[in-house]
């Protein structure tokens, strides 16, 4: 008998099928056992009716322990009471492996306990739902960029220089020279854009930042497009179109998961381009007028400041034209001002903070040399990057979207650590 996945049961209504599954939970009365089954693709209830099966089978069903693996044979039935819409009328159970003393039970557990058991915690309904949403964000990302003429390029993870300096990078030895784990693939993606026009990367990045906030990870995944002949305003349009596309894809394809997470989807349904924009100058004024007297022009925003601005708009908002002194060397100065750059951060609502940072890049050779000097960076290490400005340089722009922050926001997860399978935190390298 062909094995079927739970996600495909709707195609087999009324049929008797075989399912490989684990027992997530169970309850029983004297005459019926209800088995909550999962197979990775979804969850379904298996119903074992005492009067319809052998005594041995019913005894087996009642004795099953949490996370025991098995093969189940049963008939697919309609079940209008569940959000999934189907259940399995169980006819046979073949135990594969009996789980003993499974540590994560339906009771409440502390965060550290759950993190120590992350390899098992992933099996829970909530974590399963978040991972499925993460997968949909990834799928929609590839779809969006492929449909819009981008080529995927994979930048190196080991680098000899850094886009934003080396103070927050992991340093390692590369034979007889120093190397760093990448904090961004951006510089390499700029080179790729000069070859392929519109490119994007999707890979792991690393920040040796000693932060314990709910927004930070040591290792996380970034989506980094770069576009030749694209200037600042066009860059913002691509960003808002991309985020809107991803949100609508999740709403369409992850309804069960959002429901399982009890996510208020009304807060996501209205998120479509265009997004509101506020300049850094006006953001400072707004904050000063709304109880944030501590923030002054020239200072970077913290989490409370970003949250206050985003909550005012109730949807993602661009904060544009930051002071040149608090942004990296590669950002193009404003054409009419020498104190701000053509950049923007996209701030998610509901306290999730910055999900995108982007800018138009410096395309003038002499200006880029000057900016490197101002930031105390070695021009030799960036010689290849400088050369891009000598060989047919063009205006170009790009951005980076943090996958985990975006997934946490869409799913409503309390902490970004739930948005990645195995989080790396300041004091956590296990499991």
Could you explain the architecture of this structure?
- The two termini are 37 Å apart.
- Helix 4 (125-147) packs across helix 6 and helix 4 (125-147) crosses helix 13.
- The chain has helices spanning 55-63, 111-116, 118-121, 125-147, 186-196, 232-253, 255-260, 266-269, 280-289, 303-313, 365-374, 383-387, 403-411, and strands at 16-28, 32-38, 43-49, 69-78, 86-97, 151-152, 158-159, 171-174, 177-181, 198-206, 219-228, 277-279, 317-320, 343-348, 353-361, 396-402.
- The protein is elongated, with a radius of gyration of 26 Å.
- It has an eight-stranded mixed beta sheet. The chain has a five-stranded mixed beta barrel with strand order 1-2-3-5-4.
- It has 13 helices and 16 strands.
- The protein folds into two domains: 6-97, Nucleic acid-binding proteins (OB fold (Dihydrolipoamide Acetyltransferase, E2P)), CATH 2.40.50; 118-419, BirA Bifunctional Protein, domain 2, CATH 3.30.930.10.
- The mean pLDDT is 96.
- The protein is an alpha+beta fold and 431 residues long.
Strand element count: 16
Question: Which class of secondary structure composition applies to the elements?
Answer: alpha+beta
Strand portion, in percent? 25-35%
Helix share, percent: 25-40%
> What ranges have pLDDT less than 50 throughout 5 or more consecutive residues?
none
What fold name goes in the CATH topology slot of the largest domain?
BirA Bifunctional Protein, domain 2
| Highest CATH level, the class of the largest domain | Alpha Beta
Largest β-sheet summary: 8 strands, mixed
Multimeric status of the protein: single chain
Instruction: Give the N-terminus to C-terminus distance in angstroms.
Output: 37 Å
Task: Report Rg.
Answer: 26 Å
Number of helices: 13
């Amino acid at each position: 008998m062909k094995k079927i996945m739970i996600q495909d049961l709707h195609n087999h209504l009324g049929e008797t099928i075989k399912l490989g599954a684990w027992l997530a939970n169970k309850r029983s009365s004297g005459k019926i056992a209800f088995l909550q089954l999962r197979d990775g693709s979804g969850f379904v209830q298996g119903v074992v009716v005492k009067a319809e099966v052998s005594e041995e089978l019913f005894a087996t069903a009642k004795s099953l322990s949490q996370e025991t693996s098995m093969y189940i044979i049963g008939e697919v039935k309609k079940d209008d009471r569940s959000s999934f819409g189907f259940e399995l009328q169980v006819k046979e159970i073949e135990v594969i492996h009996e789980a003993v003393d499974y540590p994560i039970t339906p009771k409440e557990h502390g965060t550290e306990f759950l993190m120590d058991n992350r390899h098992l915690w992933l099996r829970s309904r909530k974590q399963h739902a978040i991972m499925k949403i993460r997968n949909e964000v990834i799928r929609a990302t590839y779809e969006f960029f492929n449909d819009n003429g981008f080529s995927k390029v994979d930048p190196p993870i080991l680098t000899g220089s850094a886009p934003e300096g080396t103070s927050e990078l992991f340093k390692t030895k590369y034979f007889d020279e120093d190397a760093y784990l990448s904090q961004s693939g951006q510089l390499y993606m700029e080179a790729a854009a000069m070859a392929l026009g519109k490119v994007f990367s999707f890979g792991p990045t690393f920040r040796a930042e000693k932060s314990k906030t709910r927004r930070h990870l040591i290792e996380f995944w970034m989506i980094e497009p770069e576009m030749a002949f694209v200037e600042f305003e066009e860059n913002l349009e691509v960003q808002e179109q991309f985020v809107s596309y991803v949100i609508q894809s999740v709403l369409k394809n992850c309804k069960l998961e959002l429901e399982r997470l009890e996510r208020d989807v009304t807060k996501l349904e209205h998120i479509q381009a265009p997004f509101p924009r506020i300049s850094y100058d006006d953001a400072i004024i707004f904050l000063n007028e709304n109880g944030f007297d501590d923030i002054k022009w020239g200072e970077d925003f913290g989490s409370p400041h970003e949250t206050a601005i985003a909550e005012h708009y109730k949807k993602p908002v661009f904060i544009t034209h930051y002071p040149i002194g608090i942004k990296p060397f590669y950002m193009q100065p404003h054409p009419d001002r020498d104190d701000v750059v053509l950049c923007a951060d996209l701030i998610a609502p509901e306290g999730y903070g910055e999900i995108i940072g982007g800018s138009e890049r410096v395309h003038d050779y002499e200006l880029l040399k000057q900016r490197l000097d101002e930031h105390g960076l070695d021009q030799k290490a960036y010689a290849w990057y400088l050369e891009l400005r000598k060989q047919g340089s063009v205006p170009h722009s790009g951005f980076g979207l943090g996958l985990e922050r975006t997934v946490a926001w869409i799913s409503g997860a309390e902490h970004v650590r739930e948005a990645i399978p195995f989080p790396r935190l300041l004091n956590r390298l296990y499991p």
